What we know:
Layout: H1 2-7, H2 14-27, E1 29-31, H3 32-39, H4 53-60, H5 62-73, E2 77-82, E3 88-92, H6 94-104, H7 124-137, H8 151-162, E4 173-179, E5 193-201, E6 206-214, H9 220-235, E7 237-239, E8 245-247, E9 268-272, H10 280-290, H11 292-295, E10 298-299, E11 305-306, E12 313-317, H12 318-324, E13 332-333, H13 342-346, H14 349-386, H15 400-405, H16 423-457
Parallel strand pairs: 6-9, 9-12
Antiparallel strand pairs: 1-3, 2-3, 4-5, 5-6, 7-8, 10-11, 12-13
Amino acid sequence: MAGKREENPAGSSNNLRGDVLRVLGVLKVATVEQIQQISAPHMSYRHTDKPTPSKRKQARTALHTGALSDLRKHGLAENGGQIPGGDTLRNLTPMGLKAAARELGRPVGEMGNPARGAGRTGASHPMTVNEAVLALLRPKPDLAQLASEPADVRAAAQAAVDAPAGLGTIASYATEVALPATGTWSNPGKGGAQADIVITAPEDGVPLLFVEIDNCFESAQVLAAKIDKYMRFGQRKVKDVDGKERPMWRTRWWGPDGRHGDRPHPPLLLVFNRIGPRNPHTVIAQSVALTEQHWKGRTYEDGFRMYDGKLPIVVTSMKQIQEHGPAGAVFRRFGRRQNQTLPEAIGNPRREAHDARQQAEYAARQRENQEELRRIAARHKAEKEASRPVCANCGTRFTDGRWKALEPAGWDAPRETHPHLCDDCKQRAVIAERQAEQAGTEPQEHDQAVPEQRAEGGWLSRFRPGAG
């Protein structure tokens, strides 16, 4: 124990340090409270008996503060300034990013760069990114960890558990991800985008989603220029390891192949956080008009649209996703008139409904065809039964085998001797005929012996030697 204490003076466990590495490996820079809220959400419901908010926060985050202290001792983490509220920012060193890559199971080349110096300007944008991750992830508290807490605390935690789930796990997220329009993944060229968040949660209906955070400081023209870059990245194709040309994004992430010529680019979610001077509604309306060529699909007579080669763009607000999460109908896709849940907004519900109707109609036709075939088969069977021969002796209908035996055979086949009798009656008739033949044969043999006897005692006997 003494050795472990010397190696990790704050006494943190391997699991706790691994949690911190995973969170910072994704967020790049975060406060201790944000790390705790993601990796140990049950702690947010503890220490409610402390007298002040600051003391409650200090008690909730004590374990993670200790883990960060131990990581800092090993050169894996460091302090990165403060945010306006006074909380210290934490980030990983280059060596810490490598350790986080192992914890997350990712290549080191996909981890990005350390977020050193983010706190010098208050880190308002990284903090908004972190809040968006929390709002979309919606970590659930472990109720088993709160068994000894007061009833009202357990009730609050239960309400969080019962609320709609978020998307994926912390490993489903990445931040500050370069999307190169030129250059390579490791050395992006000019003209590319940088996604604030990338989410891969196919198990929750979101195979791949790029997220752009807007604190309402940028004009619609600047935002439209960013959307142009996302479009350029989506259109870019490169040779994959098998020598075949594919969209560049498919060489790193998975996404549905699309069907029937409908292959949109990965969707983009715009999250507006209203802390800047610009009105997000005005910016959104202008952006819709400026980027129509990127997102507008082709309308079909059946009422759905195809988005082949288009960029699905969805908007929402930070306040809405914090209150409702991805399962809430708080997402509006460019070109649509109503809010939807996130999976619906990035998908194509009308197309899916059209396909479902077609499949249902096809299934109905198949059932009708099968029913018609059953009716035809039943009619043929009834007709066959009506024409089935009946035994002339006992009135029993012929079996299939007996009926088949009456069918014409080859010229050398034996002739059917009793075509009007069933198997049993035929067998009895054959036996009776044989018995009759045997009965008729015995008297004939007796009669043939009589002339012979008569010959011995008749007139011919007089010519025998010695006769008379």
